[in-house]
């Protein structure tokens, strides 16, 4: 019998003190309430296995944003490690500059009615959304059309 591999849950350490050289905002489908780590310098967010989540980093001189999930195998391309996360990730989208604002705008549109709804969608949705942001921007109508294509009937946005 063939076993299929599953993506594991991801623990993200979000700094809550000034000890780190960056700040981090994480958004996605949480499977547990965040708790302080042992050192009491971070909150630990646990994102459900197989779900996609977004990370927004701010360093001293630059910002970066990512759409990510746990790395599964070579079909995901190169595994990437990011600050505050101990396991390798599959980076679906990497944003800098204006594209960070486009990603924030898209997330605002998608999470306005239900904060977790878009994070329940398949990785394929996020890959198409990333391409849309990269090449077309974050036009509301296009984002809603794409979302509704993947969302269940009762969860579509009007």
Structure write-up:
By secondary structure, this protein is α+β, with helices and mostly antiparallel strands. It contains three helices and seven strands. It has helices at residues 98-111, 123-136, 140-150, and strands at residues 10-15, 22-28, 35-36, 42-47, 53-59, 63-70, 89-95. The strands form two sheets. Strands 2-5-6-7 form a four-stranded antiparallel beta sheet. A three-stranded antiparallel beta sheet has the order 1-4-3, with no helix packed on it. A hairpin with a 5-residue loop joins strand 3 (35-36) and strand 4. The model has no long low-confidence stretch (mean pLDDT 93).
Key terms:
alpha+beta; 3-stranded antiparallel sheet; globular; 27% strand; 3 helices; 158 residues; 4-stranded antiparallel sheet; 7 strands
Topology:
Layout: E1 10-15, E2 22-28, E3 35-36, E4 42-47, E5 53-59, E6 63-70, E7 89-95, H1 98-111, H2 123-136, H3 140-150
Antiparallel strand pairs: 1-4, 2-5, 3-4, 5-6, 6-7
Helix pairs in contact: 2-3
């Amino acid at each position: 019998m063939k076993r299929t591999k599953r993506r594991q849950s991801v623990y993200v350490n979000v700094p809550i003190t000034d000890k780190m050289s960056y700040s981090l905002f994480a958004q996605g489908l949480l499977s547990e309430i965040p708790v302080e780590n042992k050192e009491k310098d971070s909150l630990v967010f646990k994102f459900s296995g197989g779900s996609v989540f977004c990370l927004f980093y701010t360093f001293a001189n630059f910002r970066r944003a990512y759409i990510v999930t746990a790395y599964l195998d070579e079909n995901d391309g190169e595994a990437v490690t990011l600050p505050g996360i101990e396991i390798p990730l599959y980076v679906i989208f990497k944003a800098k500059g204006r594209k960070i604002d486009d990603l924030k705008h898209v997330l605002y549109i998608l999470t306005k009615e239900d904060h977790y709804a878009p994070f329940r969608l398949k990785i394929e949705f996020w890959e198409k959304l990333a391409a849309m942001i990269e090449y077309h921007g974050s036009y509301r109508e296009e984002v809603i059309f794409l979302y509704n294509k993947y969302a269940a009937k009762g969860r579509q946005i009007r």
